[in-house]
Amino acid sequence: MIHVVHHPDYVTAAPARSNYRWGKNGAIRDLLARMGDGVAWHAPDAIGRRWLEEVHDPDYVEQVLSAAVPRDKERRIGFPVTPVVAQRAQMVPGGTWLAANLALAHGFAANTAGGSHHALAETGAGYCVFNDLAVAAVRLVEEGTTPRVLIVDVDVHQGDGTAALTAGHPGIATYSIHAERNFPVRKARSTLDVPLADGIGDDAYLETLHDTLVPLLDGFRPTLILYQGGVDPFADDRLGRLALSEEGLIRRDRAVAGWAKARGVPVVSTVGGGYGDDVMAIAARHVRVITTLAEALA
Ligand SMILES: [Zn+2]
């Protein structure tokens, strides 16, 4: 049984002037629903404003919650922040936080949205409004739910917002393995960054992942891994620059889950990037991340 966090608010119609492809979260839900009793569904509450303000500037939080984000910030985000988008932005961090609690109880749980790693203190960016990873990690540590959270970001783009928002927090470490020449142009500093050259394939990727992540796991000794499981390192991704195969993505997720399991560390996953015209194929890749992790951590 896989514990999955989902909320109807995750699935919204595309706002006007949006260049982000909406509908992915609904497709992920539908694919997981086909698993019937194999999935235990959980619905989150919207995260409290104070936890958003722990990592984001209160003025920016107010702009989002009142759907009054200035146009220049909306351009950085990639879509307008309507009241519906604002509601979703508050629900998704609640989902990541709830999924983390479920992972601590069961070994693994997944949020069907989230991974909004580009959101910064004073603005969203790159299709991200609030940084659910940073918000959830800070709340988990500050409330004493778990002492050490390692955010493992395997999205093809650097987790710049997450790194910036959690920098210096004693209970939180960040790891990002990404295509060096990809967005964002100006990188932040994670606890450990692993920039990759364009076009890297499965074997070189997995070797690098092993050689960099395993020492960090043994040094930081996390009590929870928060996994941003972006599928945009896939070879045919519209915004990726790497060349992982479908099998390579599975090997990636199985490897991380195996290292976590060997150390007794629970894993919570969010989705992340995945871009292209075939929404169902991308949703299927996201679902495969969830089922691969669940299987390896069972
Ligand atoms: Zn990405």
From TrEMBL:
Q: Which GO terms describe its biological process?
A: epigenetic regulation of gene expression
What keywords tag this UniProt record? Answer: Hydrolase
Record family assignment: Belongs to the histone deacetylase family.
Instruction: Report whether Hydrolase shows up as a keyword of the record.
Output: yes
Q: Which residues form the Histone deacetylase domain?
A: 38-286
Q: Which Gene3D superfamilies match?
A: Histone deacetylase domain
Instruction: State the PANTHER family in the record.
Output: HISTONE DEACETYLASE 12, HISTONE DEACETYLASE HDAC1-RELATED
Q: What is this protein called?
A: Histone deacetylase
Molecular function (GO) terms for this protein are: histone deacetylase activity; hydrolase activity
